[in-house]
Amino acid sequence: MAVSEWSDLFVAAAGATAALAGLVFVAISINIERILQLDGVPEMGMVTLLMLIGVLVVSLFGLIPGQSEKTFGVEVLIQTGIWSLFIALLVKRSVAGLGDGAGRLPSRVVLPLFGTVPYLVGAVLLIAGSETGMYWVFAGMLGAIIAAVMNAWILLVEILR
Question: 0.85 exceeded by the pTM?
Fold first, then answer.
């Protein structure tokens, strides 16, 4: 399936994730004092923004006219590799500050995996010539958005409890 057949999805995802990233900035600014007081929470905020910006970047790559699936796969692989490295470093710093807060581990470690691993699988499949790669890229987009919204809720509401 050609990348161009997914253009409507990429347009919608680019707009939605740009808006969500803006809302996360607002959520962080509303609770900035509390966020800065809690170990690992500023890093979680940055992970949340990176996941949303990752969807935006993938969407923009998907809108480049006339590119092949392999080219798109390489773009997604490079972007996801870079993003995953930054996210892993931020997650490591965030988890180091948890102390006795092991119950927060899923939001710090597991959620970002939903917004990174499917991209990697999709990119490799696209480079290998498999049409299923696009569905994995979509799963990465969806996973990143869901994880980011869940983290945004934590940044806006849960940290005040």
Answer: yes
